[in-house]
């Protein structure tokens, strides 16, 4: 295990699925994982898919993800499309993937953001039901499963699978005991 904890980053664009963003951050912080919420755009306030406003920790123009642990890509409509349309997001993901950095994505994120970048090529991944063809079309293999784990990659289906998704990020980062402790404390079943 790496003794110096690295920071993880979760990208928030207008239209982000609020549950996927906030519940993931909540669970990771319970495990003492340093995670920074990053607004994509020039405003720390990001209006989500259901109209809730999330106040991010930083702007994308101010973060350096070169030494990131995880880059986390939530979904949402049009949140995932807005992430995919942002060149800073695309560049940070490609840079991170090129050096085998760890990436986690949920809902529309894997299909809309990661697949077109080639990040899922030769990997199994899941996403929001109905979007799996985008994974297959870009060289990946869509699997209909709550959470799919590949080396350096965790994907999940959507809002209702957010906590199992977050628990797997914790397991991969801090080990089984930390994952079990957070799952138990949050009453996440099936972990």
List the helices and strands and how they pair.
Layout: E1 8-12, H1 18-30, E2 35-39, E3 45-47, E4 53-55, E5 58-59, E6 70-73, H2 79-84, H3 87-98, E7 102-106, H4 109-114, E8 124-125, H5 132-137, E9 141-142, E10 147-150, E11 153-156, H6 162-174, H7 176-185
Parallel strand pairs: 1-2, 1-6, 2-5, 6-7, 7-11, 8-9
Antiparallel strand pairs: 3-4, 10-11
Instruction: Classify the beta-strand content into a percent band.
Output: 15-25%
**What's the pLDDT, averaged over the residues?**
96
Helix content: 25-40%
Return residue spans where pLDDT drops below 50 for at least 5 consecutive residues. none
Q: How are helices and strands ordered from N to C?
A: EHEEEEEHHEHEHEEEHH
The profile of the biggest β sheet is: 7 strands, mixed
Describe this structure in a few short sentences:
By secondary structure, this protein is of the alpha/beta class. It has helices at residues 18-30, 79-84, 87-98, 109-114, 132-137, 162-174, 176-185, and strands spanning 8-12, 35-39, 45-47, 53-55, 58-59, 70-73, 102-106, 124-125, 141-142, 147-150, 153-156.
């Amino acid at each position: 295990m790496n003794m110096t904890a690295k920071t993880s980053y979760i990208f928030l664009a207008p239209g982000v699925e609020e549950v996927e963003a906030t519940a993931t951050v909540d669970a990771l912080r319970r495990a003492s994982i340093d995670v920074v919420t990053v607004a994509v755009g020039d405003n720390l306030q990001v209006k989500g898919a259901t109209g809730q406003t999330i106040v991010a920790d930083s702007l994308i123009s101010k973060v350096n993800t070169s030494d990131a642990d995880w880059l986390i890509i939530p979904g949402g409509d049009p949140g995932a499309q807005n992430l995919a349309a942002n060149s800073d997001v695309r560049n940070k993901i490609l840079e991170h993937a090129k050096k085998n950095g760890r990436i986690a994505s949920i809902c529309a994120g894997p299909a809309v953001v990661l697949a077109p970048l080639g990040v899922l090529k030769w990997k199994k991944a899941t996403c929001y039901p109905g979007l799996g063809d985008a994974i297959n079309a870009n060289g990946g293999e869509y699997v209909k499963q709550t959470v799919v784990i590949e080396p350096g990659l965790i994907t999940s289906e959507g809002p209702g699978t957010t906590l199992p998704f977050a628990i797997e990020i914790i397991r991969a980062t801090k080990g089984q005991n930390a994952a079990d402790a957070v799952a138990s404390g949050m009453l996440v079943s099936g972990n």
